[in-house]
Amino acid sequence: MSNENFEKQLTEWRHYLHSHPESAFEEKNTSEFLAKVLKDMGLEVHRNIGGTGIVANLTVGDGEGIIGIRSDIDAINLTEVGQHPYTSQNPGKMHACGHDGHMATVLGAAKLLTERKNFSGTVRFIFQPAEEPGKGASAMIKDGLFERFPMDEIYGMHNRPGMPAGSISTRVGGIMGSEDNFVIRIKGQGSHASSPHMGKDPIVIASEIVLALQTIISRNMDPSVPAVISCTEFITDGIHNAIPTNVLIKGDTRSYTQEVSKLLEERMQTISEGICKINGAECQFEYTHEFAPTVNSEKCVDIAVRAARNVVGENNVDGNCQQWMASEDFGTFLQNIPGCFVFIGNGDDSEGIGNVPLHNSRYDYNDKILTIGAEYFAELIKERLPK
Predict the structure, then answer these.
(1) 189 has which bridge partners?
(2) One domain, residues 168 and 57
């Protein structure tokens, strides 16, 4: 297949997937489409893993190495605002994070590898459901992913608006953060706004907590270790002339290690309960772990950087990029086997699309980077599983 036809094919796949988005664990049509394309390539396809997940296998030669290449497949619940002919046909759902492009990229890598057969070993193409809520990777693992389909390593990719189109970046260690959610329920005693002395004002108490939580980062954390605490919701049951009885604080934290996550949880609970106690209020503290941090292994980063340089040139590859506090379900896979996650540039301001971020109703994946991503994965396999 010529480069022009290859690019056209990947673009057609991407546009179909973009116009038929499905959210977490509902990706039935998406899964059927992917399975058909993979079977038409002659791959061995296994479906319904962790719900709607897929694993497709390709073995060439007698090499014993087994490498996984993963794509996420779900969309988000967002109404698309766009003018292109492949706009979402499913109201209220949209591929606003680029998973349509990720799927087309991995399909493209599968096509290149089935045609070239320039490696020796086994490649597993993994299409994971429910990345957005952070539940799909664990669902596949619980369904026996690594027992049924053993792998030595796993590799993934995510597009980054704001990066030059087709450039690739990664780093050793933590590249994307964990996400932990918290809920703090404060019960004071309501009173008339004119008589605050007759109540126990939970708004003042909650405000003390919100401010005090920020001291954890500045006074309990090593300044060289990144972490974030964000209070994102503040809800009361009061009215304009009545001090409420209850306040609800919600938010999340971001970090790169389990040790930091534990420290944040313990200090947040101690501070919240302590402030409530000295003010005579009740406190309920909840803390849940939603996303594991995405932590790359050094060996896998070396391979990924070498493959990327072979495809896009040394000047377009950053092997020690800045960490990103956003979260990725890929981190759950990396808690089980080594691997590497990379970013591919979706385009910067000079290309007129860098100001449209992920999860924006006007976002769209850059079709020009599809073949670059596919070639990167194909080159990675050739490097990792040489004949």
Answers:
(1) 200
(2) yes
Active-site annotation, residues: 74, 131
Whether 283 and 305 map to the same domain: the answer is no
Q: Residues within the annotated binding site for Mn(2+)? A: 97, 99, 132, 158, 359
Domain check: are 30 and 169 in the same one?
A: yes
**351 vs 233: CA distance, rounded Å:** 36
Query: 295 - beta bridge partners?
Result: 174
Could you tell me which residues are annotated as the binding site?
A: 97, 99, 132, 158, 359
Please check whether residues 188 and 160 belong to one and the same domain: no
pTM over 0.85: yes
- Give me the domain span that covers residue 38: 3-175+294-384
Q: Where are the alpha helices (DSSP H) in the chain?
A: 3-19, 28-40, 99-116, 136-142, 145-148, 202-219, 258-278, 298-312, 330-334, 370-384
89: left (phi over 0), alpha (psi -120 to 50) or beta: alpha
- Out of 243, 269, 291, a domain closes at 291
C-alpha 306/C-alpha 48 separation (Å) is 34
- Strands ordered across the beta sheet of 66-72: 44-49, 53-60, 121-128, 66-72, 153-161, 339-347, 168-169, 317-318
**69: DSSP letter:** E
Contact 136, 74 (CB under 8 A): yes
List the pLDDT tens digit at each of the 387 positions of the chain: 788 899 999 999 999 999 999 999 999 999 999 999 999 999 999 999 999 999 999 999 999 999 999 999 999 999 999 889 999 999 999 999 999 999 999 999 999 999 999 999 999 999 999 999 999 999 999 999 999 999 999 999 999 999 999 999 999 999 999 999 999 999 999 999 999 999 999 999 999 999 999 999 999 999 999 999 999 999 999 999 999 999 999 999 999 999 999 999 999 999 999 999 999 999 999 999 999 999 999 999 999 999 999 999 999 999 999 999 999 999 999 999 999 999 999 998 766 655 699 999 999 999 999 999 999 999 999 999 999
CATH classification at residue 71: 3.40.630.10
